[in-house]
Design a protein that fits this description.
Layout (H helix, E strand, L loop, with lengths): L1 H27 L2 E2 L2 E7 L2 E6 L2 E7 L4 H13 L12 E2 L1 E4 L8 E5 L2 H6 L10 E5 L2 E8 L5 H17 L4 E9 L12 E7 L1
Parallel strand pairs: 1-5
Antiparallel strand pairs: 2-3, 3-9, 4-7, 4-8, 6-7, 6-10, 9-11, 10-11
């Protein structure tokens, strides 16, 4: 009986470790928007981002699913060049002044941006630029509900005030993980551009 219990525990530990490894490697397989960390304090960072080419679409209706679907169609060949484009991280969601996400953006891989990203076939999808410069970022885990995003944005604003740093513009929320990633292992961020 004891051997069966030990075997069960060993199997459970193996499954948990395999799940952790799968989640960790699924994020690692994607190109990530390039930045240099200028300052770090726990989950808070000041980063210097290069200008980025993004493909963007409005978030309306069943915002997240429909927006993600339109952008995924673009990188799957729904563009004027019928070019398949690799997925990148993070998915950016710039917010309105009220804090609600207004758009969803995929970062165009650096090599595709350099050679000239193809235009979207869907008129509700556009190519745009995210300006480079210094951004403050606060990292957190979980499913990133609207309430949690607002809480983390307020926390980031307090941190900037404590450091006598000023931001300009609206918040940008960022998600790095596929939807099957367990909530405690998800990487989410809120960013504010610094003046």
């Amino acid at each position: 009986m004891k051997v069966a219990n030990i075997s069960l525990w060993v199997s459970l530990v193996f499954l948990v470790l395999a799940g952790v490894a799968f989640v960790a490697t699924s994020r690692a397989g994607y190109e990530t928007a390039r930045y240099e960390v200028v300052k770090k304090d726990g989950n808070f960072e000041v980063r210097d981002y290069e200008p980025l080419v993004v493909v963007t679409t409005p978030m309306t209706g069943d915002a997240q699913n429909q927006s993600f679907g339109r952008l995924f169609k673009y990188i799957s060949g729904g563009n004027t060049g019928e070019q398949k484009i690799e997925m990148t991280t993070p998915v950016f969601m710039p917010a309105t002044s009220e804090g609600n996400s207004a758009e969803m953006q995929f970062v165009v891989p650096a090599s595709v941006a350099k050679s000239g990203a193809p235009n979207p076939a869907d008129p509700s999808v556009k190519l745009a630029k995210m300006s480079g410069g210094k951004y403050a970022a606060l990292r957190y885990s979980g499913r990133s509900t609207e309430a949690e995003r607002n809480e983390k944005l307020a926390e980031l604003r307090v941190k900037l005030s404590d450091l006598d740093l000023e931001s300009s513009g609206n918040a940008i929320f960022a998600g790095y993980d596929p939807p099957w990633t367990p909530a405690p292992m998800r990487r989410n961020e809120v960013l504010l551009k610094l003046k």
